[in-house]
Amino acid sequence: MKPAATPNWWRKTACTQAWRHCSSTAWPTHEPTHRKNNMTFLFSPLTLRSVTLANRIAVAPMCQYSAEDGFANDWHLVHLGSRAVGGAGLIIFEASAVLPQGRISPQDLGIWKDEHIAPLRRITHFIEQQGTVAGIQLAHAGRKASVWRPWEEQQGRVHPDQGGWRTDGPSAIPFDTNYTTPSALTVDGIKGVVKAFADAALRAQQAGFKVVEIHAAHGYLLHQFLSPISNHRTDQYGGTFENRARLALEVVAAVRQVWPEQLPLLVRLSATDWIDGGWNVDETVALSRLLREAGVDLIDVSSGGNIAAAAIPVGPGYQTQFAARVRNEAGIPSGTVGMITDPGQAEHILRTEQADLVLMARELLRDPYWPLHAADALHDVTSWAPQYMRATSRKSPQRPNVDYSDNE
């Protein structure tokens, strides 16, 4: 594996060991000329097309399993809004189903009908008032659909008489023994999925989103087509790499056609199935090159999710190596995710050119205000909401005062 390039100025500092051994005061004093004095990489802006993120911290999509008929509600407003107050540069809403049968659980967020737009717009408006960019992940769960929420006593498939539905996939192969065996999608069914993603992107624009991410990871429908483990088709959507990648590329083309040219498009990929004979890192890099040519602006690199019994070596930053390969070999900006918890760790990832964006999930569930604390830890500053300025211990800039009386 080709390592990410390490700048000379990094090698000369006290931080030549792993990020965990670095003190927040040991960052190098000599930085590239395009950077402002004393600005960390984590709190430097990132521009994708016409959209500029205030920093490199993104809230990763995290299913809340709290919607009814796909509609966003007060839980989503408070959950996502608090992370905008907390200073994240980008918030990507949870996997939002482009079709009702594409939900993971009956309680998933949805964007398959126009009525979903207004409740979503209420949340994106508040997020933008905090200086954060709102993004949405468009998704179809495929064979992993129609299951119980993680905290329910029952697990596995939700039967139709319990509010579940028939699932679809590339082939009639269930994800696990307690999941429904999906129906293999017909070519017409595949065309319907492609159209549903494009229609959802149009709704996303109307709902006020500035970033769209297509979910092609974690064992959901587009990933199922990519992997030879779950895709046993013999037509133009199965077999060779080119055929298995066809659906993902068709979805991207359809979305890019309707999504405004000035707005960025992201794709989340699982870099590996973590099993011999499955989707792998070399194929991820190859697909990333094709996605770059198709108008994708950043690859959000994760891993796994398609094989129930896969042995995944989970640990701090365990997926960052994959983001580095995509960034440096496919020539496209990458985001990394997975057990990133420490400000020094996040800064190290960016400084050593392993990724351009750090996406965080569980750590931001534990601490919605992690970005504010990270700026303190790195001796940098980031803006605070006026209502919270009395709590900052540094000379942090204040965000503009907002009149919330007109919010819907």
TrEMBL record:
UniProt keywords (A-Z) are: Flavoprotein, FMN, NADP, Oxidoreductase
Might you give the EC number(s) for this enzyme?
1.6.99.1
Q: Which Pfam families match?
A: Oxidored_FMN
GO MF terms, alphabetically ordered: FMN binding; NADP binding; NADPH dehydrogenase activity
Cofactors that this protein relies on: FMN
Q: Record keywords: Oxidoreductase included? A: yes
SUPFAM superfamilies documented for this protein: FMN-linked oxidoreductases
Q: Which residues form the signal peptide?
A: none
Per its UniProt entry, what is the enzyme's top EC class, as one word?
A: oxidoreductase
Asked if the Swiss-Prot or TrEMBL record annotates the protein with the keyword Coiled coil, the reply is no
- What are the coiled-coil residue ranges? none
Please report the stretch or stretches of sequence annotated as the NADH:flavin oxidoreductase/NADH oxidase N-terminal domain.
Answer: 42-378
Recorded hits in InterPro entries, A to Z, give: Aldolase_TIM, OxRdtase_FMN_N, YqjM-like
Protein name according to UniProt: Putative oxidoreductase, FAD/FMN-binding protein
This protein's species is Collimonas fungivorans (strain Ter331)
